[in-house]
Amino acid sequence: MEVKLVVRTLELIELFAQTRRPMPLTELAQGLGAPMSSCLALVRTLVARGYLYEVRRRGGYYPTARLHALSTQIQTGDPWLEHVRPHLAALRDAANETVMLGKIQDGAAVFLDVVESTHPVHYAARPGERRPIHTSAVARAILARLGPADRESMLAVADYARHTERTLVTRDALRAEVERTDAQGWAANVGESVADLTGLAVALDLGGEWYALCMAGPTQRVWEQREQNVRHLHAAAEAIRRARAG
Q1: Among candidate residues 99, 92, 103, the one with its CA nearest the CA of residue 206
Q2: Strand ranges (DSSP E) for 129-179?
Q3: Residue that is last in its domain, among 69, 86, 114
Q4: Do 209 and 141 belong together in one domain?
């Protein structure tokens, strides 16, 4: 269950990230789809707390550096991302495809960190983005490592909506794909969420919790070079395990 005020506050922050410019109150209200009175109360609260400032009278509002300072402080305390990110960067450099660290959270695959490819045409993703379980290579890599009961409980919550002609739209089909993933040691999504997009993933145990390293990009690059790309993924996972053990 979402809390409306929290959602609106987060949407306001995301709106500034998208526009990257000061916005007057009327434009903020339109962007949020919120009444002017509600938007005014939210903006005044954030101004009073030091998160927004008015660039000039009637010149619009913009976030202060406080958001960045707090997010930086929070990031340095993350138990895994600070240790994993150098390996994500190395994985991206090895394959030059977009790479992610993800896990299953509340019935969806969530990207916790992303390092994007430098190719002009590449898969674009952002930390915090969620993907359906039934079309996610991250989810399949993790599901393959779960026990039967936990796996079935996850399969039961997938919505099995069709996104392309290749989407697996039944529990039996997804179960079979997860079993194939378990047997081969890596997961794939080839054009199931977006046509001509392929994701490859391997599972990674961090502190007794299953995560996954994922690589995604155009099918003609990622899938056609899958043997090499899977080796890159396994090498990155092993490097992370060695670093944690050392």
Answers
A1: 103
A2: 130-132
A3: 69
A4: yes
The domain containing residue 128 runs over which residues? Answer: 78-244
For residues 154 and 191, state if they share a domain. Answer: yes
Largest CA distance in the chain: 64
Tokens encoding 83: 């240790």
pLDDT digits (tens, 9 = 90+) for 193-243: 999 999 999 999 988 899 999 999 999 999 999 999 999 999 999 999 988
Q: Up-side HSE of residue 171: CA atoms within 13 Å toward CB?
A: 9
DSSP state of 9: H
Residue 50 contacts residue 64 (beta carbons within 8 Å)? yes
Question: What is the rounded CA–CA span in Å between residue 133 and residue 138?
Answer: 8
Element (H, E) at 232: helix 226-245
CB 4, CB 42: distance < 8 Å = no
